[in-house]
Structure formats: structure tokens, C-alpha cells
Amino acid sequence: MNKKIKEIIPYILIIICVVSIRTFLITPARVDGESMENTLYNGEIVLLNKIVLKTKGLNRFDVVVFKHEDDLLIKRVIGLPGEKVEYINNELYINNEKINTPIEFENTDDFKYEVPNGEYFVLGDNRDNSKDSRYFGSVKLTNIKGKVSTILLPLKRIGKVK
Fold it and tell me: How do residues 50-109 score in pLDDT, each as one tens digit?
């Protein structure tokens, strides 16, 4: 083999690895807007775990990135496929059972929604400033890009997303 080609091969392999990791495992995403405050803030950079969708699936209260029309949005999973989601007097009920939420949310107006199979009901943490499933309906699993696992920037906020 030509000496120059032998020198280039490690760099090509590194590029292939980086592109593969970003495409299939993790990728950065930018928070755009105030809908997830006080969990995530406008302009923060987060890491999006893509592999979790295939390995562990999604759980209630996971924070996800999904495609809605031409935008990528970040919201919190509240309702799972096939569930009946209700808010009554700012309390969450799933299938008529009260759910204690581990996170403090903004006040949520009363509503009812039945989540179709293969879809998820998502809400922003800052309920007064969030366009979410209350407005556009549930999100198909095929539109969910991954779970937000870590705040990367700014450095003073680096850490796991609660």
C-alpha cells in the first residue's frame, strides 16, 4: 500500500466512528425556548441518547426530543401508549389513578386525553409557555429522536437531567 494511504486510514476510521456514534448512539441538541424551564433553559446544549429507544424504551417523566412539523422540540413524557391522561385541580391521573410527580411543574389546567397506541403524550415543564400535546396531540414513537440524558453546556450546569 502507498505510504500516504496508510497514514490516512486511521483518520478515516476515526471519522467513521464519530459519525456512527453521532448517528446511532448520542448527539448534541440545543434547547430553543422557555418551555422546559426550570429543568432546561434556552440555549443550553444537551446530549440526546438515541439508543435508549431501542434498548430500554421510554418511561413517564423522561425528557425527549422529537420532530413536530419542521421543528425539533424538547418536552417531558407524561402519558404512555394506550393510557388515559387527566389533570384535575393540578393533579395528574393516569387511567383514573392519581400519580405523584417527582418534579415540581407549573400549574396545569384541567384536561383529558387518551393516548393512542405507539404514541406518547408530552408536556413542557413550564406549562404556561409550552406548546405541547395539549395543542398538537400525542407524538408518534417514530418521531421521537431520543431521550435527553445530560446537560453539556453551560459548564456550570453540566450533569444529568432530572
Answer: 777 777 789 999 999 999 988 889 999 999 999 999 999 988 999 999 998 877 777 888
The DSSP 8-state label assigned to residue 158 in this structure reads: -
User: Is there a contact between 62 and 107 (Cβ–Cβ < 8 Å)?
Assistant: no
Question: In angstroms, rounded to a whole number, what is the distance separating the alpha carbons of residues 119 and 142?
Answer: 9
**Overall size of the chain counted in residues:** 162
Going by DSSP bridges, is the β-strand pair 97-99/139-140 parallel, antiparallel, or unpaired? unpaired
Query: Is residue 120 within 8 Å of residue 136, measured between CB atoms?
Result: no
d(CA 101, CA 94): 11
- pTM summary value: 0.82
Catalytic residues: 35, 75
CA distances from 82 to 14, 56, 78 (A): 43, 18, 12
Task: Give dist(CA 48, CA 26) in Å, integer.
Answer: 5
> Which three cell numbers mark 130?
409550552
Residue 53 burial (10 A CB sphere; 0-12, 13-18, 19+)? middle
